[in-house]
Amino acid sequence: MGRRHDKAAVRCHRSVSWGPCLRHGWKGAVYFKVDENTRKDFDAAGSHALEYHRQGKPQALKSYMEAPADVLEDDETLVQWAERAYRAAINSHH
Questions:
Q1: Do residues 81 and 21 make contact, with C-beta atoms less than 8 angstroms apart?
Q2: Which residues sit opposite 7 in a β-bridge?
Q3: Domain boundaries, the chain
Q4: pLDDT tens for residues 12-35?
Q5: Residue 39: CB partners within 8 Å, gap ≥ 6?
Q6: Is the backbone of residue 89 left (phi > 0), alpha (psi -120 to 50) or beta?
Q7: Helix H or strand E segment including 84
């Protein structure tokens, strides 16, 4: 876990972009890539899917869920959840 400009930067592997598994800063929230194995933990934490509006109608990108606040506040837990998001992203390409 590295710190830059008071924001956490999580790295799982140097050669892999975090773009597919982590969306940071969407309306001030952090979103992780989810799959059928990890979605239940996000649901249990009360997280919601990334939402946006298209032509005035709300849409949900259900493959990304908001990281719970308690996860973001604990570095060790954040790394664990980020690693799971990384695996979900990698597995979604197979």
A1: no
A2: 4
A3: 20-92
A4: 444 444 455 555 555 668 888 999
A5: 65
A6: alpha
A7: helix 75-92
Query: H or E element: which one contains 85?
Result: helix 75-92
Cβ contact 88:33 at 8 Å: yes
Which residue shows structure tokens 């799971």? 84
Cα distances from 18 to residues 45, 48, 54, 58, 85, in angstroms, run 23, 20, 25, 26, 9
Q: Nearest 5 degrees, angle CA 40-CA 44-CA 48?
A: 85
Q: What's the CATH number of domain 20-92, 3.30.559.10, 3.30.1460.30, 3.10.290.10, 3.90.1300.10?
A: 3.30.1460.30
DSSP result, 4-59: ETTEEE--S-TTS-STTTEEEEETTEEEEE--TTTHHHHHHTT--EEEEEETTEEE
User: What predicted TM-score, i.e. pTM, was given to this entire model?
Assistant: 0.70
